[in-house]
Amino acid sequence: MTFAVELAWWQQTGIRAVVGLLAVLLPAGTLVYLFLFKMMSFMQSRLGPMEAGPYGSLQLLAEVGKFLQKEDIIPRKADRIVFKAAPFVVLISTFLLVLVIPAGPDAWFIDVDTGIFLALAVSSISVIGILMAGWASSSKYSLMGGLRAAGQLVAYELPLVLAVMGVVIQAGTLNVQDIVMAQATGEIFGWGGIGNPFIFTQFLGFAIFLVAVQAELTQPPFDMPVAESEIVTGYLTEYTGLRFLLFFIGEFATAGIFSALAATLFLGGWYVPGIDPTNDLFNVLGPAILLGKVVLVAFLIFWFRFTYPRFREDQLQQLAWKVLIPLSLANIVVTGILKVVF
Amino acid sequence: MNVLAALGDLDRLTSGEVLVAQNVAFAVMALTMVAAALRMVTTRNVVHAALYLVVVLAGAAGHFVLLGAEFVGVTQVMVYIGAIVVLFLFGIMLTKGSFGEDDGVTSEKRLMAGLVGLLVFGVMTAALVDSFEDAEVARAAPSTTAEVSDSLFSTYIVPFEAVSVLLLAALIGAIVVARKD
């Protein structure tokens, strides 16, 4: 980053840590209020929270306050240390994920060569946290939920990774910043007016990515792991108070970050047409542009969430293994051939 | 060691010729890994053993990053932590009846396991000492992902394809073994 004053390494790192915390929590709060509280209510012909703050905008703070006051109950037969650590393992994965997303030509946390590969790798750590939660609760509903979650997450991680492959082949790099640049400087049949957002050429990849993200978040219609009519709330059953809140934050923060990843990979990230992508202006505008695209993608995710009924376990596995994975493999083959031809 | 040599060593340590931060990071991670590895083989709880294994594997990934092999480090996280340990945990939770400690796990095969561990340690140590002797780790620039892929898909293309076919064969074999009809 270029500042008027040169900051020491620890100062830069401190700033990045604080900004990273905000980058995880702010979109998460926005998504919960906009979609979970308001959009769902409007779709169901009701008003949603209206009392706390104007149009219920402070409802989220009230909810956090409520959870913080509750007792932290640990079941007597639970494995105490693993039980306590599980929500933090899930959160670690979320916080590592946000690191790879750039918000401007110089506004990044880490500019690594492996970029998107690193993101997909750390996103799989959360499975361990969920399995820990399911097992350590020593309750049959938790264990069932944990197992269902692990089976689902492992199955849907494959289409998630394979869908990204198309973008990587087209951009010719794993580095997320370079992927944004490839879209900003790309041309559609020689016309460079809006760059070349990969959603046009990789629409199949985008669709598969969104479905896989939905399943990774264990949101409806892929909410077998927390199916309340069968196994209470799955691996969350025994959690109360702060630790439940951490899982809740983890889920919605991850929703925001996956939306940001989708926006970065397929919609051009922090770039909007009309301004030169190396312009310093993007360091200021970039975060806002990215947030706008995040809200757009998250709208789709939550729209599906509120619309479709739950999949049965076998339908869910069949969709992953028999539909999404073959489709994404075909997408990779076609993209590879076209890349060589053109 | 006389005083002058010791002073010379101190000089080397502070001159930037040796990366102090890297060495400290190495020590922290290595100690954590050794402690976790010891707990992994001594704990009576199979799930705890798998979780200690996660710590050991994460440490190994950290070491790869320290050595500038970023791609290998990330692959370590993706394959071992994200897939293999998850399958371990999945298997344990599907098959194990009880939640708590399990006494009969390690008792019988302890001697053989110790022997094998000792042998592996001896062979690895001999091989490493023999091939590197007292050479210092080169402080070249970190290997980029592009370099890795270039060498993988040009110099090592035949072994790479052979390994892919081998894995496919193993996959099909597993399906054949698991099928009931």
Structure report:
The complex is a heterodimer of chains A (342) and B (181). The mean pLDDT of chain A is 84. In chain A, 68% of the residues lie in helices and 0% in strands. Chain A has 13 helices and no strands. Chain A is mainly α and 342 residues long. Chain A starts with 8 loop residues before the first helix and ends with a helix. Chain A has one domain. In chain A, helix 6 (140-171) runs antiparallel to helix 9, helix 6 (140-171) packs parallel to helix 13 (313-341) and helix 9 (203-216) runs antiparallel to helix 11 (241-266). The longest helix of chain A has 35 residues, at 9-43. By secondary structure, chain B is mainly α. Chain B has two domains: 3-139, Up-down Bundle (Four Helix Bundle (Hemerythrin (Met), subunit A)), CATH 1.20.120; 144-181. In chain B, helix 2 packs antiparallel against helix 3 and helix 3 runs antiparallel to helix 4. Chain B is globular. The termini of chain B are far apart. The relative contact order of chain B is 0.07. The model of chain B has no long low-confidence stretch (mean pLDDT 80). The A-B interface holds A 77, 79, 82, 112-114, 117-118, 120-122, 124-125, 127-128, 131-132, 134-135, 138, 143, 146-147, 150-151, 154, 157, 174 and B 45, 47-48, 51, 54, 70-71, 74-75, 77-78, 81-83, 85-87, 89-90, 93-94, 99-100, 144-146.
